[in-house]
Specification:
Number of domains: 2
Low-confidence stretches: none
Structural class: alpha+beta
Helix content: 25-40%
Radius of gyration: 23 Å
Distance between the termini: 14 Å
Strand order of the largest sheet: 1-2-3-4
Mean pLDDT: 80
Length: about 160
């Protein structure tokens, strides 16, 4: 079970393909087992953005080896560190926007109608063609086992927020 609610999106760069048995990081075998570059956008509870990537360790070429040393680097921005703990609770912000007439956070009625034009045929199709098996999972968990199997088939894995 997850201990808290986390909302984030991550974009992971695909692994670079080796060229002629070499990854371009030095001699044979250099640069293998690199982690992909990952951009993480955190919505809740730690609003912010982080970029995780691996870089060549400065001076590694001086060692005159065929292996190039790389190290992970984490660039991290959080609103709380940058601006202090000034973020108001979500409903407080929402109600304030209503009171001052700030409409940018609200969906217009024509947008809602357009969304239903897309979604309603899908709901009707699903009603007429129910799935044989619908994966379920416990509230507060990381989701059904089938979700992991789905992404594993593409050589990917889910990232637990942290």
């Amino acid at each position: 079970m997850a201990d808290e609610t986390n909302t984030e999106a991550q974009v992971a760069a695909p692994e670079a393909a080796p060229q002629d048995g070499n990854t371009g990081f030095g001699g044979p075998g250099a640069g293998h087992n690199l982690e992909p570059n990952v951009l993480v956008m955190r919505v809740q509870p730690n609003e912010g953005v982080s970029l995780n990537f691996e870089v060549k360790v400065p001076g590694a070429a001086v060692a005159l080896t065929q292996q190039v040393e790389v190290a992970p680097v984490d660039m991290d921005f959080t609103y709380s560190e940058a601006f202090g703990e000034t973020a108001a609770p979500a409903y407080e912000t929402l109600l304030l926007d209503v009171m001052i007439g700030e409409a940018t956070l609200f969906t217009r009625s024509d947008e809602v109608e357009a969304a239903w034009q897309v979604v309603e045929p899908l709901i009707q199709f699903w009603d007429q063609h129910p799935p044989e098996h619908m994966p379920t999972y416990a509230a507060g968990s990381w989701g059904p086992v089938e979700a992991g199997e789905l992404v594993k088939a593409f050589g990917a894995r889910w990232r637990e927020p942290g």
